[in-house]
What we know:
This protein is an alpha/beta fold. A 7-stranded mixed sheet has the order 1-9-8-5-4-2-3, with helices on both faces. The relative contact order is 0.17. A hairpin with a 2-residue loop joins strand 6 and strand 7 (168-169). It is built from 12 helices and 14 strands.
Amino acid sequence: xxxxxxxxxxxxxxxxxEYQTKALExxxxxxxILGEEVEAFEREFAAYxxxxxxxxxxxxxxxxxxxxxxxxxxxxxxxxxxxxTFIASVMGISMNGATPVFVEPDEFYTIDASKxxxxxxxxxxxxxxxxxxxxxxxxxxxxxxxxxxxxKVVEDCAQAHGAELNGTKAGHFGDIxxxxxxxxxxxxxxxxxGAIITDHEEYARRIRMLRNYGSEVRYYNEExxxxxxLDELQxxxxxxxxxxxxxxxxxxxxxxxxxxxxIDNEYIxxxxxxENHKTVWHQFVIRCKCRDALMDxxxxxxxxxxIHYPVPPHLSEAYAYLNLKEGSLPVTEQYAREVxxxxxxxxxxxxxxxxxxxxxxxxxxxx
Length: 367
Ligand SMILES: *Cc1c(COP(=O)(O)O)cnc(C)c1O
């Protein structure tokens, strides 16, 4: 049996007629940029997250970049961010000229809130929180620290659409919540897309202006903006995706419960879930000291896995200028050596899940 790490076509197939009908409708409408579908999606996505405003954008990276810019953060400022994230979280900071300051993760793969205060200086302006792999960070502690030191909070929710803590959705704790609709995300589109949510009217207005060349009124430009518009086709299809998001997240949860209950191998460390948190299981990430051997072994049995992420941002060539050496973030670096994301997708069958479980349980470290 061949099992891929992700199969995005399964979620399309589950509602194919609805998607194709909608796509044709948009194609025939003659309206492709900033029309009714984008407006409707923004309304629906804001409502889903209990936020006042949503602005559709062209990507998750743009949402992060524009959020940091809108909060007035730039050259000379520092932003705290966890070491073990997808590099876009860090680029959203550095593209604005600000300096990313890395903080180690906790056992849940989110920022270790107990290590935040030690990294705060008079240059620190914000905390970029990443709800990695679908799990909300320790937001109670983080928001307390942010208030105490007057820091802004940007949430990178690219992997956490629908995740909740005490009834609050990912993205609605801090100043601005940033989302990606890249196809592999829990609420993934059929191409690139992104959005921000916020309760601050001024932030929403500014990002809406910046996404369209810094213009609110056509051909009148208030500042140098960018082109980062969610398009009508993506918005229309994302409205359907959003309608089924809770259902899709529930499917992921069922698969992960099966993994948690039945994977049993002394070499494998299963993911931990924070108490009272509703994770949306963007990835099911295990750890193994002999990760590369395990990955090869699974591959030999037709099971595809992915490493999220093999090179932590502070050691990537892109950030060599920060001069952070190997050993500077031991927990982050350990995770990069040991993590492995198992196959997980909407429409994954119990036969597929069981095949992964049985194969994992037979693994022995022979290296
Ligand atoms: C996917 C992702 C992004 C970037 O989103 P794009 O739409 O690909 O630009 C940012 N942060 C995290 C944590 C992500 O997983």
